Amino acid sequence: MEQGTYGVETMNELGLHGNGPDSTIGNMEESRIQGVIDKMLAAGMDLATTDANDLFTNEFIDMSIGFAE
Predict the structure, then answer these.
(1) How is residue 26 annotated by DSSP?
(2) pTM higher than 0.90, yes or no?
(3) Residue 61's closest CA among 38, 29, 16?
(4) For residue range 20-63, what is the model confidence (pLDDT) as tens digits?
């Protein structure tokens, strides 16, 4: 219990977790993933896909769940 409390307090202090810009936790943002793909392509990497939508789904995310602000 003590270690769990320490872990949560430390993550809060360091800003290591939080809601996305839409107040949901755990969902993926297409623009962020596409940005990573674009950087990989610019670096000359060979990718199986160049479309972020091929790599994730938010189908199973409950968009009503988020951290209290």
Answers:
(1) S
(2) no
(3) 29
(4) 888 898 899 999 999 999 999 999 999 999 999 999 999 999 99
